[in-house]
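quick one
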Amino acid sequence: MNTLIEHLAEACSTHRVREKWLVAPSLRVGHQWLDQVALAGTPVVNARVLTVRSLALQVIGARLAKEGLAVASPAARRLAVAAAWQDVMRDDGYLGKARRTPGLLALAEATILDLKLAGVGPTGIKTGDFEQRLKAHELTALLGAYQAELDRRGLIDNADAARLATAELAGNGAAGREIVLLRPGDIRLTAVEQALLDAVAGENAVTLAVDEPGGDDSGTDLPVRFVHAAGEANEVRGVLRSCLGEELALDTVEVLYTASEPYVSLIYETAQRVFEPDASLDLGIPVTFAGGVPARLSRPGRLLAAWHEWIHDGFPQSGLLRMLQAGLLRSPADDEGHAVATAGLARTLRRTGIGFGRDRYRQCLQEHIDSIERPGSHLQSARALAGFVKTLISVSPEPSASAAVAVTAAKALLVDHARVADTLDGLAVQRLGQELDAMTEALDGGTADPPGFDVWQWLEELPERITIGGSGPRPGYLHAAPLRGGGHSGRTNTFVLGLDDGRFPSAGRQDPLLLDVERRQVATSLRTSDVELHEQLEQFDRLLAGLRGRLTLSFSSRNIDDDRETFAGPVLLAAWRRVSGERDGDHAALMKQLDPAISFAPRDADRCLDSGEWWLYQAAREPRVENLPELAEAAFDHLARGAVAGAARASDAFTVYDGLVDEPGPELDPCTPRGPVMSATSGLQAIGKCPLAYFYARVLKIELPQDLDVNPDEWLDAMQFGTLLHEVLFRFVERLITDDTWPPEPERDLPVMAAIVESLADDARRRNPPPNEDAYRRRRRRLDRSAEIFVNEQARRAGPGRPVYLEASIGLPTEQRGTDIDAPDPVEVALPGGSTIRARARIDRIDRVDDGGTHKHPTFVIYDYKSSSKTEPYDPPDLFDQGRLVQHVLYMAVAGAVLADRFGPDTVVDGFRFMFPGVRTHGREVAFGRDVIEPGLEVIRTLCTLPATGVFLATDDPDDCRYCSYRAACQAVQRDLRELCEASKRKIDNPANTALKPFVELRRDG
Ligand code: SF4
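structure w/ iron/sulfur cluster:
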């Protein structure tokens, strides 16, 4: 029992039945004191805990009711400050020229309250006390305007409450002879509060003695242990491991932290999560938090933050998807009243091309519903999603909405849509709801926004600022409290976390609105930054003096985010010097004496919090466990399998772990009727680039989830832009064919092209709204320029040929208007050696070039438009880029077959041209003659051998990985893709890997 509790017990004993008012820094702390008295055996009768504020309200309660006054909520105070600032500050003033931000208003509110609690009113500020007389005038006016605003609203603040109560007591005499006022000797009071306590009980006030640092009975000499940890997370683990290893009952332990963040979150999350693989063993560790935990740790708090971001990012589809996937939204009901799983809604949402924009949801979801042909679960889910989104959108205003609308909408979001899965969620809805109600009341139904008040920023900060679930110490629970205001539980094991030099004591910061030098002039009772700093140290000493039992002081000696050393703070160093007797000891001397840092791997088997820590302990312990890998593999099947795969991949042999399918069926062989139909880019060239990527895409059919994130700087991704450009070129060439005006003439046709671009860009814009006008203009400029280049270059290069087929679809459904060579079935292409493949192609343009009479037979040239800004990949020195480029060969072969059917066996496909209308490539063409067909078909035959024989090795060139969709899959195996490619190279170079011979041919012959 410490001195304060002893004296409190004595007072309770002396004044056993008289009414006692115990003044405490908080109701929770006061009750902890009384609990300790009662637990020590002294009856506690007729005692009430009061804070200065609640005491004042107790005294003036009747007057407030009579005069229709109320205590201002934090929301109302903030609005009153905003109104006062707006009222008195001028843009050319001293303080007035500062930009009005929510942070500035928070500072102003704190300064005003400081002044009022120090007993300083508008007349108490003298211009002579300030170097800047204008500033003094402004502060005087601000104080007066704030008070006037409170009066107008019929409100009082805490300073007013204390002042009114003091006046009330002066008028009516002390609270009463019967009441004994008990006040601890070290309670911190402002001038106004001090006056109230002096007035309240006259001679019946009892000051309770407290432990003085260095005093005879103080806890200064209590056993102290000093520890350090690798990061704050391990400081927290260190506490829990001590409880386990030293068999400390949780309700004998109090953890004090110097900073709410990150310690509250870390204590909460570590205590919640015991890493047992068996969920039934996952009991968690019960903890009470004196200050509660931030609402952002709850689902409703996270929903409020995500909703705010969703609205301010322009309602992106990806934002709604994230809310659904994180389980933040309550499941809606289907037509029959059954809850629809949010995972199903998320899947359906992925299939809709909403992109972003509040107004697009309804239309796109309806289009999606209309596109579903058959009734069934998909249709049901789409309808449920549409209904759900409709209600969510109805409570989601635009960012320009008024403060009153935004706050009402936020409340509706929490009440109607927030998922409540546990007690914390329930508390969050309640507490956040109270704050929102208080703001609604403070806004008083106004349609115009309060000047200087940013409601969206206020909403954004709410989940972080509001804490929930605060509780006093409870039996069976570990108790966590902030250092300032903690240490009152009377528990015998105290851990203080966060005593590094960056955290405690926190640097005293001057109030920028009322500097220290001005504060000293205005009133001696106004607190200054150096007094704040001094008090932090003094309070820490008092805290230690008041503790009993065992004390552990802890600091983080490493920042694990950036692997930087951090250092013990001055109070820990001073305490260590005192305890160790090393009066001049420095940080290095301290570190020499301390045990190694607490880390993720415990040092003792009996301190492991879960099985994961136990394995880490075994991995790090001395002496080493020689056969640990084998033991781990015996315990965990997947590790054993992973070890076998790892060894195989590390070897030079080509194995099933490297992409070898040891029994490939005919369905993998493109040369069999059951085999895959081959296209150029996603089939043959994909194999040539990386057989493993082809395996993922075409054999396992793994598709990357569609990326729904909107790039704020880009309208249309590369593929969408390419499609739009193709459409523009198609329309233009089609128009000239129809009008029989090919080749183009710039003077005549540039306006035609411009009109086509305008119309198609408008359509694209409707389908995919740009994130902003700048992004649209950038893309549009590129489109305009490319279209212009196309017209000019086609005019310049005009020869005897003219386009006859546009977007010919062979082996594919017809697109655009179709051509008379379109065929839904694939075409057979004969390969050297007698085999055939079935192939398909969509050909941008086929020109007939024999009209001039130089060709005896029907003769054609194929064009393929490329929006790429580089021509090199389409013009490789080896013609086929080691199998990565066979489009020219395949298209000539496929077109040759269908054109021969149409025009007779003498038909000739004489060439193939890649055409680049881009700004950088400026209409360049890369041309190939028909002489590439024969060697090209040989390359295609080799490519087809790879899937047919089950060879799906990763590429040996990291350049192939640059834009690959499967990077994440490969990186799960080998973080550095260059090493993965190196391993492929080794396997290719090993002559024993005969299965890789075709791949070797491609890469070596190229
Ligand atoms: S990341 Fe590289 S190795 Fe992996 S599949 Fe893609 S291209 Fe192949």
